Amino acid sequence: MWGGRFAEGPSAIMREINASIPFDKALWRQDIAASKAHVAMLAACDIVTDADAETIIDGLETIAGEYEANGVPEDWDLEDIHMTTEARLAELVGPAAGRLHTARSRNDQVATDFRLWVRDAMDQALAGLAALQRALVTRAGEHAESIMPGFTHLQTAQPVTMGHHLMAYYEMAARDVSRFSDARRRLNQCPLGSAALAGTGFPIDREMTAQALGFAKPTDNSLDAVSDRDFALDYLQAAAQCSLHLSRLAEEMVIWASQPFGFVRMPDTLSTGSSIMPQKKNPDAAELVRGHAGRIVGCLTSLMVTMKGLPLAYSKDMQDDKPPVFEAASLLNLSIAAMTGMVDGATFRTDRMRQAAELGYATATDLADWLVRQADIPFREAHHITGAAVKLAEGKGVALEALTLDELQAIDSRIDERVYSALSVEASVAARASHGGTAPAEVRKRVAEARQHLGMD
Ligand code: ARG
């Protein structure tokens, strides 16, 4: 493509280090779409003839059919997807092919293709997250009243409802949706026509190509347009944060599926067995989602470090932008799908959860609150009295409500039999009806709002 200036061809090492075709062939659909939009615009602006444009478009469509059927050929001499397609076009249609690259450079071409690819990845993440949210909301609705221990420090803290716990992940997914949507809006400007770095002297119509490719408008600065990879970083930031959420849910599934907890039975379809221990059912999918989060964060770090010291405009370092984005996207899409399957297919063992809530002194705060309200005892003193009651119950190996009134009154004479109604786990969750609290009535409200938001009703 640039033989005119060179006396010798590239060494084997140069060819190998330079070639991006092994990975950027993934951009072939975007590359062909952008080339078609470009040449149609060149014809509309009388920069190429209609006949040449038609020949080029037919040729590009033939190439798309070939790639679809046989894959993209990998010839390192042709470096990347842009030159691979242009070389094939020249074979197919002859000299007219040489007019396609008028008023464009690979710098604006790759920036455009990559934006189109990342925009699709954002749309895939958004579709996956919508499915995950629907699964969470459905299960939360089923378990608006199921009681489980809520934890801090992974120590039993206060009873919560299972529906409330699942809706916490709905909120995280909602923020992920907002991040991807926001990133998509920022991405949606078209670099095509920025050419190598300075724009072009040809009388092109950038609005036309932007519109043809579904962008809101052309980018406003050619130097920025060819050297900007913020859209890829925005995607990776959103992906990394989303993967942290998925990883936390995965970690809970791993803990809950363990025998001492026994809160959940994982679906067989997302578990594996052991080659030696016949009893085993391992939560491998959840563990891999937890593992993948580390790799996705690594992809984000990789591209941030690639970009940090680059002068304007394009530098070849930027060719390294694609592998981390491609890797993160496939890991993220799989992780979202795996967690959706787990939420859909998990059997929540509400009996075990309830038992754990009862045996963990989860209603101790309710006893303290009762002392404040009914006996007008300052909270700090109530806390102390309750601590003594927990100590006694723990020593006897029983739940708080199994202590007799005599035993409780021996700790503090102001306690009377009404206290028992505050000590049940049901009373505890029902009492927490502040906005966003765990009370079943509140959870049902949040579930109803979410179902409406997701168009489920
Ligand atoms: N393969 C290149 C990349 O992915 C395309 C742009 C090449 N531009 C250049 N000036 N060498 O970044």
From TrEMBL:
It catalyses: 2-(N(omega)-L-arginino)succinate = fumarate + L-arginine. Keywords: Amino-acid biosynthesis, Arginine biosynthesis, Cytoplasm, Lyase. PROSITE patterns: FUMARATE_LYASES (PS00163). InterPro entries: Arg_succ_lyase_C, Argininosuccinate_lyase, Fumarase/histidase_N, Fumarate_lyase_CS, Fumarate_lyase_fam, Fumarate_lyase_N, L-Aspartase-like. The keyword Iron-sulfur does not apply. Residues 4-298 form the Fumarate lyase N-terminal domain. Its EC number is 4.3.2.1. GO terms for molecular function: argininosuccinate lyase activity. It holds the Pfam family ASL_C2. Belongs to the lyase 1 family. Argininosuccinate lyase subfamily. NCBIfam families: argH (TIGR00838). PANTHER family: ARGININOSUCCINATE LYASE. This is Argininosuccinate lyase. It comes from Aurantiacibacter gilvus.
